[in-house]
Amino acid sequence: MTLRAIQSEAATDPAGAAALGVERVTHHYGKRKALDDVSFSVGRGSFTVLLGLNGAGKSTLFSLITRLYATRSGSIRIFGFDVNRTPGEALRRLGVVFQARTLDLDLSISQNLSYHAALHGIGARESKDLIREALSQADMTDRADEKARSLSGGQMRRVEIARALLHRPRMLLLDEPTVGLDVKARAAIVAHVRRLVVREGVGVLWATHLIDEIDPGDNVVVLHRGRVLDQGNVREVAARAGAQEMGAAFARLTGEGAAEDPA
Ligand SMILES: Nc1ncnc2c1ncn2[C@@H]1O[C@H](COP(=O)(O)OP(=O)(O)OP(=O)(O)O)[C@@H](O)[C@H]1O
């Protein structure tokens, strides 16, 4: 794909479609129902938190969105493109940062990025420009030739985010991206992704079980034991639960407390 094709993509998106639309999705592992009639959407350029404890179904949902598993019941659309029926159109508009670290530690940072560009069919010249831009956005320009293993956990995550955005998707999924980071690195990653939302207009779905990663202005989807208990603007969700803030609202909705901070 050429740089121009990537840039003109917004013009071909079905008008008005959400960055991500999940509609009536149910998923079973054998007899166990991991997702039960899940519906929500992520608006273009919005930061939406998928809030749920371990086992809520967050990873299952990500596996369906990324087509690791086939969606058998319900539909998932990225900018209006159904991931099952038009997977190419849907998935090239999507960037993903997985919970587990996925950089090749023996490759340099720029080699890790080049590899991703090649997988997306981006030619050498465009790839060079995109990598330069991505490194600058991640504040990593001076580290480009260093091996990935020399980076701190927070820096690795920044490179993974840059890599996920290399093919210029307008929708970014992050599955518990701050796992294993200290408090400072955690805050830096959240702030970095929030900046991307504001500056680049990327729609973000941020899966977490940590209440303190949520801002009052965010949208939130509360997922518990495979079901969406409530969703919408954080202030509205809290008010509906009769709570002052999201931590108390989550506890009321689920009957369980969410974690504040792992440190
Ligand atoms: N491959 C699998 N086979 C059977 N059951 C599974 C499988 N993967 C997940 N589950 C079950 O499905 C439910 C949802 O799990 P899932 O991993 O999606 O939750 P999660 O919110 O991502 O939690 P975590 O953060 O711990 O990964 C859980 O009850 C889990 O035990």
From TrEMBL:
Tell me what this protein is called.
Answer: ABC-2 type transport system ATP-binding protein
Q: Does the keyword ATP-binding apply?
A: yes
Check the record and name the PROSITE patterns matching this protein.
ABC_TRANSPORTER_1 (PS00211), ABC_TRANSPORTER_2 (PS50893)
In which family does this protein belong, per the annotation?
A: Belongs to the ABC transporter superfamily.
Output the Gene3D superfamilies linked to this UniProt entry.
P-loop containing nucleotide triphosphate hydrolases
- Name the Pfam families for this protein: ABC_tran
What InterPro entries does this protein's entry cite? AAA+_ATPase (IPR003593), ABC_transporter-like_ATP-bd (IPR003439), ABC_transporter-like_CS (IPR017871), ABC_transporter_ATP-binding (IPR050763), ABC_transprt_ATP-bd_su_PQQ (IPR022467), P-loop_NTPase (IPR027417)
Provide the organism lineage as a comma list.
Bacteria, Pseudomonadati, Pseudomonadota, Alphaproteobacteria, Hyphomicrobiales
